[in-house]
Amino acid sequence: MNFKQCFFRIYDKKIASGEITFSRTGISKDQFTALCTEPDFVFDRALLDKLKETMNLTDEQHDMLVRAADGQDV
Fold it and tell me: What is the rounded distance in angstroms from the CA atom of residue 68 to the CA atom of residue 21?
């Protein structure tokens, strides 16, 4: 699973459940657009660390996103 697939698997569930909103994630519209349109786009480590808090990610979810951002299989 690549970064985009991994991110949206987590993001979509949290949005659908009402646990988070886009505006509270700290992701800019430009970053989100790039993620949706650029095949190899990944968030930088600083944003991934911020998302752990703003998206209420578990350690496992955060680690999975970091590994996917680094190009590792998740």
Answer: 23
pLDDT at residue number 8: 97
- Is the model's pTM score more than 0.85? yes
DSSP output for 39-56: TT----HHHHHHHHHHTT
Average pLDDT per 10 consecutive residues for the chain, totaling 74 residues? 95 97 96 95 97 97 97 85
* Contact yes or no for 41/34 (Cβ under 8 A): yes
Give 28: exposed, middle or buried? Use CB within 10 Å, 0-12, 13-18, 19+.
exposed
pLDDT of residue 74: 80
